């Protein structure tokens, strides 16, 4: 029989021999930002954003139990705040964890920017270890750089520094949302951001606002204001405001290493003979210019059987379909709207592929697929093959949604991506999918090499 101390030593040895992921609890695909001391200083302490940081050890059971809620919180706070983690079991991180006063795992700390750059306020998170609890606490601490206006002071605000761009949100709410606060952080010192209530009738009439919320961009220098008509999502809203000014870089860029790259406006140091041109003596570029790669086209479902198998079976999940116009499935016969719709969907799919994030399948359905006309009829869409329709449907859950290009027939990437993001987040109104749309007829036995989607 083993002595108790010998048994404990054997268990400890076996545990130590178990393989541990280099990423600790969180993999590289995780939405949680993994940092060490250098990354903490650069990306957290010097950021304009509020962050929450988990100090953990991979062997800690409570840390492993927290992982699902913490990753869910990271997804909810994406673009609004930072959710990070530090592996305190890593020898390189142990001194820093000690400096931060970590005495148990997991320890969560909320880091809020202060007026002194690089010296944020750090406090222990004492709330519930749930995604909602974490999100609520972090959202409460997002800095508010949004000015609250009324009819009494809106003109004064507009007249201040008229050459500089401004953004004004008209809203029915009396509170300042995390989204508009995050936008103000993105454009801190470059675009002044304010909000005004819908009850302030003079301002509402001045800008001709009829829907709430509505974001208005005033580019400055006497240019006419521009009304944003896209989805109220951070990505497309940042792109909209970028017409007037560039957003602040975040995560903060790493400090340039000395004697590596020349400063802006300075010439390079003496080039090596191999770098000089024999004809004019000018140095050749030392850094190759990356060539952007185009997004691959989305898959096409050319037959009724392919469409039914992929998206209309009783157990099919969410699909996004572009019901294309034209009399032939070749690109040369497609209308300009169909081409733009396909390009936009391809761009969205390419973005998610590069980020390695999961996205439901995107398909093009040519007009030659007879099932496309049937699907149009059952959903009450125009049956003419001259119009393009983008729809999302989920046969398993029995819902569908239609993309609205508005009167301008806008199938551009910004609006299409915002519409897809709303579907991913479960936002917006869904229509009941007619039962006749779902294919329930008996089918031959599946081949053994068929992969069920």
TrEMBL record:
Entry's localization field: Endoplasmic reticulum lumen
PANTHER family for this protein: PROTEIN DISULFIDE-ISOMERASE A6
Gene3D superfamilies membership: Glutaredoxin
Domain of life, source organism: Eukaryota
Signal sequence range: 1-22
Broad enzyme group: isomerase
Compositional bias (Basic and acidic residues): 256-273
EC number(s) recorded for this UniProt protein: 5.3.4.1
Disordered, as annotated region: 242-297, 431-453
Keywords, ordered alphabetically: Disulfide bond, Isomerase, Redox-active center, Signal
Catalysis performed (reactions): Catalyzes the rearrangement of -S-S- bonds in proteins
Domain Thioredoxin: 11-144
Protein name, UniProt field: protein disulfide-isomerase
Alphabetized InterPro entries for the sequence: Thioredox_PDIA6_C (IPR057305), Thioredoxin-like_sf (IPR036249), Thioredoxin_CS (IPR017937), Thioredoxin_domain (IPR013766)
Species, as recorded: Aspergillus cavernicola
